[in-house]
Amino acid sequence: MGQGRGVRKKGKHLSKTIRRLAVWLCGVAFLALAGFGLWLWSYAVTPMPMRSELQVLIPPKTSLAGIARILAEKGVIPPGRGFYVLARVSRLSQRLQAGEYRFSPGQTPYHILRALAAGATVRWSVTIPEGSNIYQLADILSQGGWGERELFLELARDPEIIARHGVRAASLEGYLFPDTYQLVRGQNPREIIALMLERGRQVRQELGDLRDNPLGLTPHEVLTLASIVEKETAAPEERPLIAQVFLNRLRQGMRLQTDPTVIYGLADFNGNLTRKDLQTLTPYNTYLINGLPPGPIANPGRAAIVAVLHPAPAPYLYFVSKNDGTHYFSNDLAEHNRAVLKYQKGGS
Q1: Nearest C-alpha neighbor of 137 from the set 99, 174, 100, 185
Q2: pLDDT attached to residue 206
Q3: Rounded-to-integer distance, Cα 175 and Cα 227, Å
Q4: pTM of the model
């Protein structure tokens, strides 16, 4: 009997001890958790000591640890585990996106984390001038750091891309619309090509059915002629007249005899068009072939396409440069020869 009471007393004492220990451990855990929360909150809202605006490129497929390391190396955040832990706790770690970012003095780690999660990348304006061909376009993009020149040319000739976008030609020449695009560093070159193709499709859709033109040209032929018009004049007001000259010549079965097509067909043009060049047979030499060349020689803008669809009513069959950015238009060969003598050979 006495031993039983002793055992019960010892059991009660042990139970109280366990309860006290549990309370103590809970208190320690609470204080630790509160301390951790206070530290993380303080880290998250403390402005970073950047002295100036910084731009940082996060490559595709970079891990969270890799992103934190890049930001620390660039001076955006201090070294340590703070940013990694903040990203994990905030559940934003799986949403961080690659690209080029611009960070400013005064931004907090949480602001920086949110920018990365939102993909608030730096957008760069890249302008492709009207009349640029695929080689010039590739030069512009490669020189701007958007990818290798040969890669863009390869994509412009990729049969799978060409077929997917409904282009019936050997390349995307004429279909990569010249415009100003907002690009991001690290952007896939395929995406850039797709942007230009989609912009071209939108413009053509806005212009209506390209088959509705004076000669019933196919859409591909319209773009081909528009590209020639684009290359022949830099004077906007002349485009409808230039288009009409070529349409008149096509209607009468005359060869187009336009220098830009010859140049496009030459593999090693050095900037000086010679008589030999004019006599070199290529699919693009309109001095030697009848009708239009097989495809565009550049990427025409909206105005050049409109000029082919709605040319200026005129009987002209010839034009010659006046060496001031404009041209003299003639109805017949005799008048044209006089204009050539006056403007090109120094005659009076």
Answers
A1: 174
A2: 96
A3: 10
A4: 0.80
